[in-house]
Each structure stands twice: as structure tokens, then as C-alpha cells.
């Protein structure tokens, strides 16, 4: 039996490490479930989720050329499908305006130039201003 990416297979946990769990597949090959593919929540210790000799269903997520098989426990579990995506509520502080983009850009440039000129005046006076003597 060849292992196909995307297929779900049953396997037996043969070993647990700090980075994941090794699973023996029905074909006799061994795959690895990385710790990040065990559950949707944070997994601190693999032993909290799996034990050696557990029979589990996993999904094949990759098969490398050197024969390594990547498995996922969390992707093998059926999740309820959300029928309608929730719309983001509009912020009440956002104003709907009828200004064109050019009008908004011109207003922004004018405000920006005013702020920069105020900033320049303030920093020039602290540095001695224009034409101040040096030395």
C-alpha cells in the first residue's frame, strides 16, 4: 500500500519524543507526528495526548524523497464547517466620507506640511536657529 498525501490512515504509536510521536502505519512504514501537529492548542508534553501502543487515525501531510513521512493528528480530526463567515463590525469611530482619494491626499499633505514646519521651528530654536553664531 503506497502512502498518498492527504489520505487518512490508522496507525499505532510506537515511540514518543520531546518533539513528537512515531507512528507505525498499516504498510509497515513509520511516520512522525511533529508536536505542532498533535493538537490545535499548545502542546507542552506529547505524553499528555498520546501513549505508546495507542491506535490513532492520522492524516498524511507530506512524504519526502528520502522516505520520511509527515503526519498530522489535528488535521485528521473532523471539524465542523462554519456555514457563514462572520462579518467584522465597522468601528463607530470610522467616518464614512464622500471625499475622493485626491481630496483626502491633499488634506493629508497640507496637515503634514504644517506639522513639519511647526517641528522645524521648534527644533531650530533649540539649536540656536538660523544664522546663530558658532564657536
Automatic annotation (TrEMBL):
Residues 74-135 are annotated as: Disordered. Residues 75-90, 101-127 have a biased composition (Basic and acidic residues). Residues 6-74 form the S1 motif domain. InterPro entries: NA-bd_OB-fold (IPR012340), Ribos_protein_bS1-like (IPR050437), S1_domain (IPR003029). GO terms for biological process: translation. Gene3D superfamilies: Nucleic acid-binding proteins (2.40.50.140). One of its GO terms (molecular function) is structural constituent of ribosome. PANTHER family: 30S RIBOSOMAL PROTEIN S1. This is RNA-binding protein S1. It comes from Tepidibacillus decaturensis.
